[in-house]
Design brief:
By secondary structure, this protein is of the alpha/beta class. It has helices at residues 2-20, 40-45, 71-76, and strands at 23-25, 49-50, 54-58, 66-69, 84-86, 90-94, 99-104, 116-122.
Length: 124
């Protein structure tokens, strides 16, 4: 009986963990853009990101892309040593570990004009 109870408990925790995962569209309805200069710092400050959440970056590929970069490259808008590059216009980024993550648009002037995102991902 105890083994059955343990199994049921593990299954319930697994289901609860999966159901708690959130999907965030970066910039909400504006998406990942320069139009109307969305405030991505403000956007991120209204969220609490957890491991296994997902970010969705939506944008026009002829104008934007997404690069995951280091803190240094984020601060200085450097694009020459990206950790990852996304360019589909509907990019899904799974947050697989806790920590600080930094994203920028690599097109000239976009990052320095504010098209960049810093998030902190927490343990579940």
């Amino acid at each position: 009986m105890a083994l059955v109870l343990l199994f049921v408990t593990v299954v319930l925790f697994s289901v609860c963990e999966v159901s708690m995962n959130a999907v965030y569209r970066v910039g909400d309805s504006a998406g990942w853009t320069m139009i109307d200069h969305p405030d991505y710092k403000r956007w991120a400050s209204t969220k609490r990101f957890h491991v296994w959440d997902t970010l969705i970056f939506t944008y026009l590929t002829q104008y934007h892309d997404v690069m995951e970069v280091s803190h240094h490259d984020y601060v200085h808008c450097k694009t020459n040593s990206a950790k990852a590059v996304y360019h589909t216009g509907s990019d899904s980024v799974s947050l697989t570990k806790p920590g600080e993550f930094y994203f920028i648009c690599s097109n000239d002037g976009h990052c320095s004009a504010g098209q960049k995102l810093h998030i902190k991902v927490h343990h579940i």
